[in-house]
Amino acid sequence: MKKEVITPAEHKQIIKEFDLVSTWKLKADAVVIGSGAGGAVAAAELSKSGWKVVLIEEGGYFNPGNFSNDEFISQARLYRDAGYVLTENQTASIVQGRTLGGSTTINWQTSLYPPDYVTNEWRDRFGLPGYGRSEEMAAFIEEVHARVGVHEVPPRLINHNNEVLMRGGKAIGLHPEVLKNNSKGCQGLGRCGLGCPINAKQSMFLTYIPDAIAAGAIVVTNMRATKISDGKVKKVFAEFTPDPYEAAPGIVIEEMEIEAPVVILSAGALEGPALLQRSGLGNDMVGKNLKLHPTSTIFAKFKTDIDMWHGPPQSVVIKDGHNQRNTGYGFWLEVAPFRPTLTSAIMPFYGSRQFKHIKDYKKLSAGIVLVRDGADGQTAGKVEWSWGKRKVHYEMTPTDGKNMLLGLKMLAEVQTAAGATELIFPFGDMQEEFKTGPGANFDWVLQKTFEAGRLSVGSAHPHGSIQASSDPKTGAINPDFELYGHKNIFVMDACWIPTGLSVNPQITTMSSSLRAARKLAGQKSSRVST
To answer: In the chain, what are the domains?
Structure first.
């Protein structure tokens, strides 16, 4: 079998080679479900250690020649639910990747490891020691950083959108900082969210997935895991998922059935718990405590062009609201590179008022408040598989909601100090833009409601829904990421993170998965029948 990604184009050859009828049956030492920051790293590490690995990915495989600048096509092909996963009561929209490399293929590259106050909480609250930077994680973080090219965004690539935070933050005495991202040779094309057309972003399909294939792993795209069957030897069942914008070949492998003594689940914080639930696996904590790092947006209009889509999406952050009571719960200020289609979808106006602002799109900056949710303990978020459907529930708790309002007030002050003339707030009852300027007072923001449906909320960081803990009463997996009650079923992606990060879970997911996979690889004789 060729050492390459097996896409639908290769199905006819596979069917002929293995004389298949409809189901492709494989045996392996480990099957990995999902090819994002957790699954790709685990597959590479186990393969390099001599394990026979099969990795399946629900989405398709796209390279720079396939990436499109068309928002509609790109979202349909690269994102789960075309980029619009909605909670059941429509309180929040969630974006998540569904392609080879997972969200690392379409994220905005921000690459940070959580600070000590977060990892200390993991240790003290959930019995997960050793994740601090100064502890054993240091070597794994450095290895990951080197592999994916983590570095500070250079000054020449800090665009006008991010300069709004830098300029406005400094003007009112805040402390803007330059962010780190994972790229090599970035030219500031501003297409990170649509797939990098020059392979500058060091996503999984450029790094750890090729490592896994070179070491012998079989990687199959367009295959959705439908069920995991437990036992001494597990079975993973998967079905073909076509590309929404490309006709499938006339002959395809309709189903896969993979036998392996070890299963590694890396399907994300939404699909991961849904798969476990419909498979009848795990304890009552599976799907609970979903965290979103909820965000809300203020569009600011300036007299000069901003062109917010241009350049690396996020290169500046303001953390001044993030460390209340020295717990890290609170908020950060960042910007978002919303393109025209998404801008019109998020903007709370309709008709002529919306058209007026979209005509001035080049002069808009999108500032966002990102809240570290969980200040009140377990969140009011969960994922459930019910009546043949994955359902997502989420509402901000009182303290998290107050932190969001505090963040929106600070963001409005920063944008005004940077020279904004109008602000478009995310409150449903504000049907006009807010005229702003020197001396504007935003204390009124703190009196607004954050009730479901009254405040526009989004997320790109779902996590925590298959929580890790040393106690099965508070977690779904143990400190080795093994599912409680089921030997040799592991969870290695952002859904294990129990209490939230500062921002963007990818580096934490990669580093922790590398450590866990390396430990697992050293136990092959006791885990795998050789």
So the answer is: 5-149+193-289+461-527 (3.50.50.60), 153-180+295-372+397-456 (3.30.410)
